[in-house]
Amino acid sequence: MVEPLPKPRKAVLHIIPNLTVGGAQSYLKTLVDGIVQCKHQIFILEDQVGTEWEGYAIDLICISKLMRLCKNPNLFKIPFHFHWYPPFQFNIPECRKAKSIVTIQENENCRIRNANIYVTSTSAGLRYVPPRSQGVVIRPAIDPQRWRSHPVKRKKGRLIRHSTLYPHKLSDSIMQDICSYDFKRYQWRIIGVGDWNYTFYLRLRYLLSAPITLGSSDNICEELNRAWLYVYHASDKGEHYGLCFQEALACGIPIVTNDHTGAVEQIQQGETGFICSDYAEMKMRVDALYCNDLLYDELLNNLRNYHVKEQWIDFLAAYEHLYSS
User: Is the torsion defined by CA of 269, 273, 274, 275 positive or negative?
Assistant: First the structure.
């Protein structure tokens, strides 16, 4: 008896500015690794790729070539998924609209026009926009196996945050507060990529005189698993809706932040971290944990029971439905 040939995998094309550290990249990797019944092709606009993407189908593309792909009639039935954030902008041709999906952070100005479905990341999850559209909420999720590693020795006083290095994400007011911490106790590690000129400015202005180091995204899982606390200052100009909190929680790190909007759905107050009213309260919480090992150990024990698998399965099922519709 001749066995039937396997059905060809459905193709999905993903477009993203780059493949470095950030919530958009974590979303994409979760989808590509989790929805294995689809064949994923990734196009990037900047030649920036983290080492964790080695072996994936990735091509560098320019806007004009992207426009030609969108207008190719042989690809009209293939979903195009734009994982987007400013300052990139693009107008999707009308012929491509029916099979186009855009995922964007709610607090960012979406500059991708004419998509059929917009999925917006909010503190409560993902929802379809514009508001008149009806749809289920897709809560953000990550692959728990990717982030949780074997227990490692956490260095007491090692504070970490990771996000893109741009003025609106890591402002002077944030850096000044970071520099006000007691460096006899604490060492700061900031993981992220961003504008080269701004990164140079940070090194020149702050890092030469303080125990603060910048790190790449290449070993982010290891960095998060070795950190003592995840301390995230929300910007003065906007709240945070990325997956950084979930990544930290999955790695078992207690969180201290003033980002109420971004954290309220993810952090259990006093159980897995602390949501504070301002920078001063954040510093008070960090000092309290430093002076109270029992309180810190209690947070660690709570985080050992932190599970994201069910949410991750629902997340994949929701996007699989979008790709197949």
Answer: negative
